[in-house]
Each structure stands twice: as structure tokens, then as C-alpha cells.
Amino acid sequence: TSGRATFNEYVNTSLVYGTTDLTLGYAGGTTGIFIKGSTALAGNVGIGTTSPSTKLHVAGDVRAENSRFLAGRGTAAAPAYRFHDDGDTGMFNIASNILAFATSGSERMRVTSTGDVVIYSGQLSVMDSTGPQLQVSGWSDRAGTANNANGAIYIGNTDAYRGIIDYDASSTGSLIISNTWNNNNGDIVFK
Questions:
Q1: Which residue among 108, 119, 158, 191 is least crowded, i.e. fewest CB within 10 A of its CB?
Q2: Cα–Cα distances in Å, from 28 out to 1, 8, 20, 23, 69?
Q3: How many CA atoms lie within 13 A of 83 on its CB side?
Q4: Cα–Cα dist 108/154, whole Å
Q5: What is the pLDDT of residue 74?
Q6: Close Cβ partners of 182 (under 8 Å, ≥ 6 residues apart)
Q7: Buried/exposed 147-165: b ≥16 CB within 10 Å, e otherwise
Q8: How many Cβ atoms are within 10 Å of 76's Cβ, its own excluded?
């Protein structure tokens, strides 16, 4: 049966038990703790919501002081710590002492147990408001030739004006230091 218990010492506070749900909160209000009963969402608990869509659904900020949030390892496709509207972007734990980050369901960066930072599928860029000032790129030399041993470091923020340290493993095996200023005619100066 349904019913209501009112706690007189706490004005407007009540415990309401319906035929399927249990609410603890302000009388007639939608805030408080809500436990969904015998429906498809049975057992879901809502705090600040009467429509909990997961086992614990909090509408508002959550604070844990001197406490922890614990999660399973997760994967790149479903990180353990992710955003409610972007389920394949977040942080996960590959194995003991290895932390990883994913976007679009793919691992993009990992911090190893020794503290090494590994970046996948892209290039490392140090940027300011004008664009990238330093870029480290793998799998491609300055001519764009793909090879898993190629790599380049670009210094400067435009293709026409930057220095390049380039390793060309695909054709010459050369380490090249160049300057793109003035159609690749800029000077390289050692002081």
C-alpha cells in the first residue's frame, strides 16, 4: 500500500512509499533521495531526480572529501572514467600501474609504470595562441613519405617559416636539419 510518514521535528520532510517507489525528501517536492521500485528501472537510486537512469544517478555536484571513487579497468572503447554524453572518451587503466586516455574509442596517450608518456596516432604539439610552436611527428618525414622509422621535429608555427630536424629512413637514412624560410633557402647557423 501507499502511505506517508511525516517527521514533525523537520518541517516539510517526509518519507513517501508508493506502490512501486520510495522517496525521502521535502513533502511534495522532487528533491531528495528517490528509489525506483518494480519497473524496468527497479533498484535505481536518484538523488535530486525522480527518474534515475543508472544504479546511482545524481542531479547536481558530487563531492568526496578524503575519500575515493573506485572503478574497474575499462577499455579504450568504454573508459572507466568517461562523460555521460560521450561514452568512448575518457581515462582507463590498461593494467596495474598503467594509465591511459582515449578519444573516439581509441587509445591516444598512456603513462607507463616508469613514468614514460606515450602518445599514439598523432603528433605532439606545443601550442600558444598563434598555433603550434613545436611539433614532434612520427611515421612521416618532411616530404610526407610514410615509413614507421621516419620522424620529424618542427620548430615554428607555419609551413613556410620553420626549422625542421628530420630523419628519412625510407630512402637515404639521413638526418636532415633544414629551414623552410624563403623556399628552403634559409640559413642554418651554428654559434
A1: 191
A2: 18, 15, 17, 10, 32
A3: 10
A4: 21
A5: 94
A6: none
A7: eeebbbbbebbeeeebebe
A8: 20
Provide the β-strand partners of residue 126: 134
Cell of 95: 593494467
| 117-136 pLDDT per residue, tens | 888 766 677 777 777 677 77
Phi, psi of 184 (to 5 degrees): 70, 20
DSSP state of 74: B
What pLDDT is recorded for position 162?
76
Nearest in space to 170 (alpha carbons), one of 136, 143, 189: 143
Q: Spell out, as residue ranges, where the chain has pLDDT lower than 50.
A: 1, 8-11, 14, 141
- Cell numbers for 131: 598555433
CA distance 134 to 20: 60
pLDDT of residue 1: 44
Q: What is the pLDDT of residue 69?
A: 80
Cα angle for residues 81, 85, 86 (degrees, 5° grid): 60
